[in-house]
Amino acid sequence: MNAAKGSTLSVNGLVKRFGGLLVTDHFNLEVRPGELHAIIGPNGAGKTTLINQLCGELMPQAGSILLDGRELVRESVQRRARMGISRSYQITSVFREFTALENVMLAVQGASGRNFSFWKPVLGDASLLGPAQALLEQVGLGAQAKTPVSAMAHGAHRQLELAMTMALQPKVMLLDEPMAGMSHQESEDMVRLLQTLKGRYGIVLVEHDMDAVFALADRITVMVYGKAIACGTSEQIRNDPDVRMAYLGDQVETV
C-alpha cells in the first residue's frame, strides 16, 4: 500500500478492539507536510487510543500507518521517535526536580542517542546546552531556563513539554490535548505558539477547545465511536449537518 501522494503521515483502515469493543473503526487519516490536522470528537470517541496507536504504545489489530511511505505498525515507540513521530500527553511529562533547561537538555541528549549515565558532565556540554536554550526560546521560555519546573505555572509546563517534543526533530508531532487545564490566557498563548510551528512540522492535534481548533487547524477530522465521520476545513466542518448532530451542536455558534 502506498502513501497518498505528498503526504507525511497516512493511516489506512486502522482497527483496534478491546475484547468485543471496537474503539478504532477502520480509521483513515492523512496529514500533509506542514499541516496541522485536528481530531475532534466527544469523550470516549477513541481519540487518545488512536494517538497511542500512532506513537506505538498500542498495537492495532488491522490497518496501516505510513510515514513517508514507510510502514510503522510493527515499530516500537523508540524506533518511531527516531523515524520522526513524537508526542505530548494529556498530563504533562516533565521532571519537576530539574530546571526547564535541564529537562530540554535531557530531551536533546535522548534524541542524539547518547548515553544518560553521566548526568553532571552533561550540564556543561555545549552541544546540548545551545540547542536546548534555543528550543526554550522558541516556545517562549528562554527567560525561565534556570527555573525549577516545580516553580513554573501549568501553562509553562505545557510549553516545556512542547520544547522537549521538538527536541526529537520530528516530522510529525502528536499533541494530545495540549491546552487541558489551562487558563484562558494560557490557552491563547499556546494557540499563538502553535501557529508559529505550523508549516515546520506535521501536527496531529487532539483538542476539546473548539476556539483553538478552528483558529489553528488546516483540516479537521471528526471522530465518533472510533470512526471518522467527516474530514474537511474548519468551514466545512462547521457547516456539516452530520457533525452538528453528532458532536458540535450549538458550539459552532460561539466560534
Account of the 3D structure:
The structure is a single chain. It is globular and about 55 Å long. It folds into 2 domains: 1-84 and 170-255, P-loop containing nucleotide triphosphate hydrolases (Rossmann fold, 3-Layer(aba) Sandwich), CATH 3.40.50; 94-169, no CATH class. The chain has a 6-stranded mixed sheet, sandwiched between helices. The termini are far apart. The protein is built from 10 helices and 10 strands. Helix 5 crosses helix 6 (154-166). It is of the alpha/beta class.
Gist?
With 255 residues, the chain is an alpha/beta fold. The chain is built from 10 helices and 10 strands.
| Helical proportion, percent range | 25-40%
Strand content: 15-25%
DSSP E strands, number = 10
Structural class: alpha/beta
* Gap from first CA to last CA: 39 Å
Give unreliable regions as ranges. 1-6, 250-255
Would you state the CATH class of the largest domain? Alpha Beta
Secondary-structure arrangement, i.e. CATH architecture of the largest domain? 3-Layer(aba) Sandwich
Taking the sheet with the most strands, its summary is:
6 strands, mixed
Strand order of the largest sheet: 6-7-8-3-9-10
Provide the number of structural domains. 2
Gyration radius from CA atoms, angstroms: 18 Å
Q: What is the CATH superfamily label of the largest domain?
A: P-loop containing nucleotide triphosphate hydrolases
Number of helices: 10
N-to-C series of helices and strands: EEEHEEHEHHHHEHEHEEHH
Shape: globular
Q: CATH fold name of the largest domain, please?
A: Rossmann fold
What value does the average pLDDT take?
A: 88
